[in-house]
Give the backbone structure.
Amino acid sequence: MGRRPGLSVRLKLTLSYAGFLMVAGVLLLTAVWVFLLEYVPDDWDKRMLHENPNRQLLAYTFAPAAATVLAVLLVFGLLGGWVLAGRMLAPLTRITEATRAATHGSLSHRIRLPGRRDEFRELSDAFDTMLARLEAHVAEQERFAANASHELRTPLAISKTLLEVARTDPNRDTDEIIDRLYAVNGRAIDLTEALLVLSRADRRSFSRERVDLSLLAEEAAETLLPLAEEHGVTVETHGEITPAIGSPALLLQLTTNLVHNAIVHNLPEQGTVRVTTGVRRETVVLTVENTGAKVTPHLVATLTEPFRRGAERLRTHHAGVGLGLAIVKTITRAHDGTLTLAPRPDGGILITVELPATDPPADGVRTSYGRMEA
């Protein structure tokens, strides 16, 4: 619904400036008039007008001069106010032009307002920062959409090929085709569910409640114990009660993804995964570290990108869909937390999730959970 046009800000500032100037002029002339009246007699003698001025004569001569001064002040206030308002609002014009360009999809435009810091420059810098983040977010979403389309197209293309083989080659072993279709379909379902989790966390469309990260760590370790036994990995969980506010389902997904990745990307045998929870002054911390091959900081920095998979991940049966750490990053961000990945000197990765803390319950402090071995 369009709004009716009104006075421009420049005209409003001009009228305000001229109005204040007129008020100041009137007050000044009034003060002069009152001051003069104190020393001028009130008698009226035409014979002595030029030798003995009085209030009537002063009013007769002062009023036209005061009116002339006020008229000059009005013209000066309007012209000067218009020029000054234009100069003051020039940065706002550049910001408006940049905003209009952004509404038409041009996110690469920047204002870059010169000069020292003031309100307009702070607004300009904040707008430039917002445009930079929007541009990066849009680029990330475009890459994600392209990667997701490719990942979803692959199992569908494989299923189509297998169905064509089954239709054109009646002598082909149907059990083998069914098994391969089952595996491909399962991968497509896992990918779709991962995309749904990622979308839900990114929209922050979830209810928040009190949750204990230490219990989630224990549950994730117990759930993935068979996988750890299969890979010959020892899972250790330690920590005290770790209260936080968030979605229990999403935080459990976050913890499970971290433990799953730590198990799968580990030493071929006798590997170790350590899951620790703790409380700091204003945050709670969940750390997951594993043994494994040495990795470079550059590679670690790219692991949270969607569909980022290394060669070793493709060769495993529990390879996942390439969204594990991307989901962790999105869930952490949706809970106003921070995610940090760092390579361990002896090999493997240390992952730290830091979330805002809440007050611990009054039922005491949990002791460490001990050690779970696979």
